[in-house]
Write a structure and sequence with these properties.
Helix content is 40%, strand content 14%. The chain has 11 helices and 7 strands. Helix 1 packs across helix 11. The mean pLDDT is 88.
């Protein structure tokens, strides 16, 4: 397989953290909806066998091809992009996923260049979009490595608590290793999610710690903190920002902060 990293305006963003339960899917969905609402053309890729992003958007994959067919790792079941992609709204598309993606790692580990399959298939279609956003699995397996190799930048959501914060060091080690395969990868920033602002001291201590980590790695912690909200993960195709919750307001602020950073580049 020949891997091509062409110079294009399209930006590929992976939402990553090897720890589960840190709102990666909600963050990917919010960023996708927010950028789409700003007039950008967005492709969301559900690259997690749990298929949470697909489920959140209300899709049933029983009758449609999914990411594993598009990836082309099933010898008898390979699907073209146009047969897999689902249109969510005028500016937002989705590559869906489900438990079948669990079959991919065994195949990818056995193949030379198995870390670059996602980059290869994205490279064929990315010029249709302004942003490609990848929702990753809560692990550091070869699926996540594929996302890191394909990404131009990373956004790392984290809960401001000790277990979540200290686990970020493992992710940073993995990112350093992946730079041998993707020299241009960068961390756009860390975003605080599921914040309990009543616990002010714990919140400050953990955010301060990650701010130090961010400075050491040439990046930042976004100012926008996402408050905990059960309604933010309600299953619906409805735009996240129409829900009128604290979390949706926070995510709206995060998207604006992200766009402001984009405009400065």
């Amino acid at each position: 397989m020949t891997l091509k990293r062409e110079i294009k305006m399209t930006k590929t963003i992976a939402i990553v953290n090897q720890k589960g339960g840190v709102a990666k899917t909600t963050t990917a969905l919010a960023l996708g909806h927010g950028l789409a609402a700003s007039g950008k053309k967005i492709l969301l890729i559900d690259f997690d066998p749990q298929g949470s992003l697909t489920t959140f958007l209300g899709y049933d994959t029983s009758d449609v091809p999914t990411a594993i067919e598009w990836l082309g790792v099933q010898r008898k079941h390979v699907a073209a992009f146009d047969d897999v992609v689902l249109n969510v709204n005028a500016n937002l598309d989705l590559i869906p996923s489900d438990i079948s993606l669990e079959e991919a790692p065994g195949y990818l580990y056995s193949k030379p260049g198995g870390h670059g399959y996602l980059l290869a298939v994205i490279s064929e279609i990315k010029d249709r979009y302004d942003y490609v956003i990848i929702d990753t699995s809560p692990s550091l397996n070869i699926l996540t490595i594929n996302a890191l190799v394909a990404a131009d930048e990373l956004i790392v959501p984290f809960k401001p608590e000790v277990g979540s914060v200290k686990g970020i060091s493992l992710l940073l080690d993995t990112i350093r290793d992946v730079r041998a395969l993707n020299r241009s990868i960068r961390i756009a920033g860390f975003v605080v999610v599921m914040a309990d602002k009543r616990r002010k001291q714990a919140l400050k201590e953990n955010v301060d710690y990650i701010q130090g980590v961010a400075r050491e790695n040439g990046t930042k912690v976004y100012n926008s903190m996402i408050r905990a909200s059960a309604s933010a993960t309600r299953l619906t195709k409805e735009d996240l920002f129409t829900r009128g919750t604290a979390a949706s307001d926070d995510y709206a602020a995060f998207v604006q902060e992200y766009l402001k950073g984009e405009n400065k580049q």
